[in-house]
Amino acid sequence: MDAIILQILNGLDKGSAYALIALGLTLIFGTLGVVNFAHGALFMIGAFCAVTLSRLLSLSHEVAVEGEVDFLGNPMMKDVPYIYDIFGEATGAAIIDWSVPLSILFAIPVMVAIGFIMERGLIQHFYKRPHADQILVTFGLAIVLQEIIKYFYGANPIPTPAPAAFTGSFDFGAVLGFDPNTIIYPYWRLVYFAFAAIIIGAVFAFLQFTTFGMVVRAGMADRETVGLLGINIDKRFTIMFGIAAAVAGLAGVMYTPINSPNYHMGMDFLVLSFVVVVVGGMGSLPGAVLAGFLLGVLESFASMGAVLEVLPGINQIIIYLVAIVILLTRPRGLMGRKGVMEE
Amino acid sequence: MFGLNSKDTKLLLVVIALTMLAPFILNPFPEGSAMAQFNGGYPDLMQRLVIFGIFAIGFNILFGLTGYLSFGHAAFLGVGSYAAIWMMKLLTMNVIPAIMISVLVAGLFSLLVGWISLRRSGIYFSILTLAFAQMSYSLAYSVLTPITGGETGLQPKINDPRILDGALAAGETPRANLFGLEMGSSYEMTFGNWVFTFNAGYYIAAVVMILAFYLSIRIFRSPFGMMLRAVKSNQQRLNYTGLNAKPYTLAAFVISGMYAGLAGGLLVAMDTQVGAERMFWTASGEVVLMTILGGAGTLIGPVLGAGFIKYMENIVSKINKTVLEQWFAFMPDGIEDFIITIVYPFVGKGWHLTLGLLFMLVVIFLPGGLVQGGQKVFGLFRRKKASDEKTDGKTTPAE
């Protein structure tokens, strides 16, 4: 029992990342009808927003330490971040420590701007082109974005730690009445899951309870009619693209402490996220979220020792296997709508 | 000739001439000159040019004719490679059985994958093929390690059985050969400052490519090819006429899978080692790039695309900062530094950036690829000529 709970928990953080990326993907697909292969790159850029901010915050200058000399007899120099000069040492250190959560504020405008530029500059010219062309041009864009990041940040993963308050782990075993130390779960992953839940809830609430969201949903159902009613649906869809980009970016920002960001992390997630979208049903938002968590949890169950003994290697392929079975038995995915991509 | 009309015969002859004279064409600059690094006439690169040409020709039969975009073709290349290397390890280092088995195994594997994937179309088909390819890749890396060698991959070892081959002399390593003619052996011709390399492996691969190209022309011009085009233009209408498109698309899928297997087998024949990374989905993406860049649905396009990408990959990756400094040395210092700073991210390790940009530009402005670009330029000249004639006042009345 405790092993099962542990695997569910383990699946949740990866599932959260899948769900967030897949949510953005299917949002773009549902509104604009574009298959965006560059969505993984947006996730990666989000992660590098966190890296950039933490580097910016730790920019420092040298200050002589009074009363001390190094072995050559010169005054001892010490690096002092500029932020210490502004906020004082204690606050400055706290800000640097909390750079990852702070990056959320930094990443939102950056990601929305990137989303706008992408949609207006490139993707709007592809609405009328075949899906193959959309896939190919966004695939090219993903390569370009990835290589730009690689040029500026290098090819190695860059460790970006979580705030000190969230290091360490939470002992679920003790809370739930099992033996202590059987179910140990890092705090940051709990934070990630909660964060993902909030973002997903916010996106759904935005679509469900605001006038703007209502118009967008109407546009998803029948773009032409909404346009005929005198509503500038293109503008709203552009904004939705920005939001989808921001969701992917935030997923990336918060993922940095779990997995050190590198330039190809977007591609690694993209392929799986596409599978998630297809399993959930192209164009269905709840389907994407459901499938994201489901596949995340399934993947972590498949990596259990007991399962691997029976079916070696199953953890590597379980997601693809599920996707194949689902596509063959339920072509529209778990919650797919009728008439989406069925030409 | 060979059942081709005159236009196709001309095309085939051009391809034959290009491949046979490649050691000259790719080595236009004398040895030791500043431009020598643009020479592509070394065996390794030439072999890759034609082998990936075969891969792209095969991919084009599926994508160019039926419009089904497969993102998993690298899996067939990989499976073919593994089959070939096992043939070399167990039976003989002769390349013929290795290549035959690679085509056969890749064909069977593509039959399985195609049979399942072709139940869906559009993006779902792409995702299914991608899923299969990624599965093969993951399995090759993990569970199937006894067969695939996992991360280390496979190479022929001294103590492999090789039933048909005689025992090796002491200190000899097993080398891929064709009835004793080693793939790596080459003849160098020196002509003034020029050095041209004629490599046995290259010519074998080139002959195979010409055969593959000929076959693809025949497929394009056959009733079967016409049927595949009908699938692309409107599958629904085809169904309404009472035809089942599935056998045709499946046949196209298997044929292109066999082409991929052939390419995989040849890769092993030229360089006797296999790693799972050649099944990774970026490798599948690469063949899509080649086909699109050259021009999907055209005969010569994929060959041009494959050649262009592989040549650029090898040449552009070799340019480093020192080379750039040599090139722009004639400029004033400030401008030189400025230009080098701008160009540097695109060359050397930044080759993928150039590739990505090139790819985007082609998809945006030239959906028909290089072939369409060539036709546009050609058309421009032709129109000019036509208008020249008009000014002469000798136009014949259009009756």
Structural class of chain A: mainly alpha
Gyration radius of chain B (Cα, Å) is: 23 Å
Largest sheet of chain B: 2 strands, antiparallel
CATH fold-level topology of the domain at 6-280 in chain B = ABC transporter involved in vitamin B12 uptake, BtuC
CATH class of the domain at 6-280 in chain B, named Mainly Alpha
- Could you tell me the number of beta strands of chain B? 4
Ends of chain B: how far apart?
35 Å
- Rg for CA atoms of chain A: 23 Å
Strand order of the largest sheet of chain B: 1-2
Low-confidence stretches of chain A: none
Percent in strands of chain A: 5-15%
DSSP strand (E) fraction of chain B?
under 5%
Topology of this structure?
The complex is a heterodimer of chains A (343) and B (399).
Chain A: H1 2-32, H2 39-57, E1 60-69, E2 75-81, H3 82-87, H4 89-97, H5 99-121, H6 131-153, E3 169-171, H7 172-176, E4 184-186, H8 187-209, H9 211-221, H10 223-228, H11 233-255, H12 265-280, H13 285-302, H14 305-310, H15 314-329
Antiparallel strand pairs in A: 1-2, 3-4
Helix pairs in contact in A: 1-8, 1-11, 1-12, 1-13, 2-5, 2-6, 2-11, 2-12, 5-11, 8-9, 8-11, 9-11, 12-13, 12-15, 13-15
Chain B: H1 6-20, H2 22-25, H3 43-66, H4 73-90, H5 95-117, H6 122-141, H7 145-148, E1 177-178, E2 181-182, E3 186-191, E4 194-199, H8 200-221, H9 223-233, H10 235-240, H11 246-270, H12 281-294, H13 301-318, H14 321-327, H15 333-343, H16 351-365, H17 369-392
Antiparallel strand pairs in B: 1-2, 3-4
Helix pairs in contact in B: 1-8, 3-8, 3-9, 3-11, 3-12, 3-13, 4-5, 4-6, 4-11, 5-6, 5-11, 8-9, 8-11, 12-13
